[in-house]
């Protein structure tokens, strides 16, 4: 619910008619064409209004209830999957510009490109009695909107497709079934040492609390498996955790969740933030005999399950994961493990694993 007052003060006698108050949500996307021409697309996805008869100056209250879902006519273009329309009619968050939670060291939303803006505002227009005259007065006030969880409308369980080969039906899954693998070799003769497999197990949505001025903490399991040829396992040093925010945007509505398949009519802006470093020198490996017919050289299999802990600060410019008709935001968690094998004394090697991360907001 958004409520307030419109105050009207005049010095001269004027003839009044109606005071029209509107709450609008507008998405603006600007892109540079390859020939240098600047193109811009504007979509009004929400418009609520109320009209009041004005007989004299004074203070006039207003109240609007912002819905958790947009009207169906706000997404009338062709979509490749019903889940896409479900996502496109969810209320998008304010995006771009200065956020109310910005601090002196973080005044702007560094995760959003300047080409994208999602703005909500209150507009008040005082209309003259004569319909052929221009309105005598108009004012505007921007408001900041962050959608929170709704039991009637849970967040859609899918993330953007990362390549043109992804089928729309695959967008309905929030799974990451591709662990990272690295072949370990040593010295100039590239002697095979073994194979390291790193996998971040699936985590549920990460919920940030709007009214709690403390970090949002989370822990997810990282599973490491090492198939050794020599009977020794790597020495683990540390791991770093980063969150990568991708903002997808285009000049025309997208039929899919991915905005990367429209070439010149769309773009993606990616920004990574380092959020944690964790020591792994005390990690314990568990060894089990590994007898396989496919690879008889593998002698031992080592496994380690590492809890990866991180926190998101409340003054960071995060918004909930969303996918609208022309703008979308998704997140990925990137975990880099640094290790050494054998008697190596040079720089440690690393293996990087990514995991889709859904961020939601709660007002509790």
What would your notes on this structure say?
There is one protein chain. This protein has a five-stranded antiparallel sheet with strand order 7-8-10-14-13, with no helix packed on it. The chain has 364 residues and is mostly beta strands. Mean pLDDT is 80; it is low at 103-107 and 159-177. The protein has one helix at residues 82-88; strands spanning 2-8, 16-32, 38-53, 58-64, 116-128, 137-143, 180-186, 191-200, 206-209, 216-228, 235-250, 266-279, 286-289, 300-312, 322-323, 327-340, 349-357, 359-362. Strand 5 and strand 6 (137-143) form a beta hairpin. It folds into two domains: 2-66 and 94-143, Immunoglobulin-like; 168-362, no CATH class.
Number of contiguous helices: 1
Poorly predicted runs are 103-107, 159-177
Strand content: over 45%
Q: What's the total number of strands?
A: 18
Biggest sheet strand line-up: 7-8-10-14-13
Rough shape? elongated
- Helix coverage percent: under 10%
Question: Mean pLDDT across all residues, rounded?
Answer: 80
- The helix/strand class is mainly beta
Distance between the first and last residues' Cα: 16 Å
Q: How would you characterize the largest beta sheet? A: 5 strands, antiparallel
Q: In angstroms, what is the radius of gyration?
A: 27 Å
SSE ordering: EEEEHEEEEEEEEEEEEEE
InterPro entries: Bul1-like (IPR039634)
Biased composition (Basic and acidic residues): 163-177
Protein name: Bul1 C-terminal domain-containing protein
Region (Disordered): 154-177
Could you give the topology of this structure?
Layout: E1 2-8, E2 16-32, E3 38-53, E4 58-64, H1 82-88, E5 116-128, E6 137-143, E7 180-186, E8 191-200, E9 206-209, E10 216-228, E11 235-250, E12 266-279, E13 286-289, E14 300-312, E15 322-323, E16 327-340, E17 349-357, E18 359-362
Parallel strand pairs: 9-18
Antiparallel strand pairs: 1-4, 2-3, 2-5, 5-6, 7-8, 8-10, 10-14, 11-12, 11-16, 13-14, 15-16, 16-17
């Amino acid at each position: 619910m958004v409520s307030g007052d419109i105050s009207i003060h005049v010095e001269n006698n004027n003839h009044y008619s109606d005071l029209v108050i509107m709450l609008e949500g507008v998405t603006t996307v600007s892109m540079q064409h390859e020939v240098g021409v600047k193109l811009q697309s504007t979509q009004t996805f929400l418009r609520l209004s109320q009209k009041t008869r004005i007989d004299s100056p004074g203070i006039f209250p207003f109240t609007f209830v912002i819905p958790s879902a947009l009207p169906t006519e706000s997404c009338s273009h062709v979509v490749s999957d019903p889940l896409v329309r479900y996502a496109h009619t969810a209320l998008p968050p304010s995006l771009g510009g200065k956020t109310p939670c910005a601090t002196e060291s973080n005044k702007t939303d560094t995760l959003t490109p300047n080409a994208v803006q999602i703005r909500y505002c209150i507009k008040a227009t005082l209309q003259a009695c004569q319909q052929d005259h221009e309105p005598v007065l108009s004012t505007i006030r921007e408001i900041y909107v962050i959608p929170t969880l709704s039991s009637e409308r849970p967040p859609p369980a899918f993330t953007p497709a990362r390549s043109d080969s992804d089928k729309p039906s695959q967008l309905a899954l929030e799974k990451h079934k591709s662990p990272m693998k690295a072949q370990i070799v040593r010295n100039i003769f590239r002697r095979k040492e073994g194979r390291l497999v790193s996998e971040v197990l699936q985590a549920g949505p990460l919920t940030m609390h709007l009214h709690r001025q403390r970090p949002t903490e989370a822990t997810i399991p990282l599973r490491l498996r090492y198939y050794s040829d020599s009977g020794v396992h790597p020495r683990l040093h540390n791991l770093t955790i980063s969150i990568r925010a991708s903002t997808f945007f285009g000049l025309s509505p997208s039929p899919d969740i991915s905005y990367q398949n429209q070439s010149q009519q769309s773009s993606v802006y990616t920004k990574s933030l380092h959020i944690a470093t964790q020591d792994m020198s005390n990690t314990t490996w568990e060894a089990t005999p590994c007898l396989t017919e496919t690879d008889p050289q593998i002698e031992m299999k080592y496994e380690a399950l590492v809890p990866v802990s991180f926190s998101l600060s409340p003054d960071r410019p995060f918004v909930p994961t969303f996918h609208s008709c022309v703008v979308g935001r998704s997140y990925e968690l990137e975990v880099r493990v640094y290790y050494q094998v054998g008697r190596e004394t040079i720089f440690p090697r690393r293996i990087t694993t990514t995991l889709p991360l859904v961020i939601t907001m709660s007002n509790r």
